[in-house]
Specification:
Layout (H helix, E strand, L loop, with lengths): L2 E5 L3 H13 L3 E5 L2 H11 L3 E5 L7 H11 L5 E5 L4 H9 L4 E4 L4 H16 L1
Parallel strand pairs: 1-2, 1-3, 3-4, 4-5
Helix pairs in contact: 2-3
């Protein structure tokens, strides 16, 4: 069962995404805190991370950099409620697997998750 880590400061998003992904058969870890997300990543080694770019304590881009410095092959999909060309460019530069807006239909997000995991698992 693939393991997905959700890092998002919106508790409602965490609950909804957790429930939806568990219904699809994923093991889901979650936190609303960026630094805690890095700790969870290092301890649990999830197959994929869904990372909100707009976190309060440290930016999602900083979390992305820390995760990728720990594991350069980490698969991270950056999620944003306000994707600007600059944020997309920064996320890709720091090694994001993909960048999606929070308004993306769940089926489309699920396709991106499956694609990322198929590469991870070979």
């Amino acid at each position: 069962m693939p393991k997905v880590l959700l890092i998002d400061d919106d508790e409602l998003v965490l609950v909804m995404m957790r429930n939806a992904l568990e219904d699809e058969g994923y093991e889901v870890l979650s936190t609303a805190d960026g630094p805690q997300g890095v700790v969870i990543y290092k301890e649990q080694r999830p197959d994929l991370v869904l990372l909100d770019i707009g976190l309060p304590s440290i930016s999602g881009l900083e979390v992305l950099k820390e995760i990728r410095s720990f594991n350069p092959k980490a698969r991270v999909i950056v999620v944003s409620g306000y994707g600007t060309p600059e944020s997309v460019s920064s996320a890709v530069r720091y090694g994001a697997w993909d960048f999606v807006e929070k308004s993306i239909p769940f089926e489309d997000l699920l396709t991106k998750i499956r694609n990322a995991l198929s590469v991870v698992r070979g």
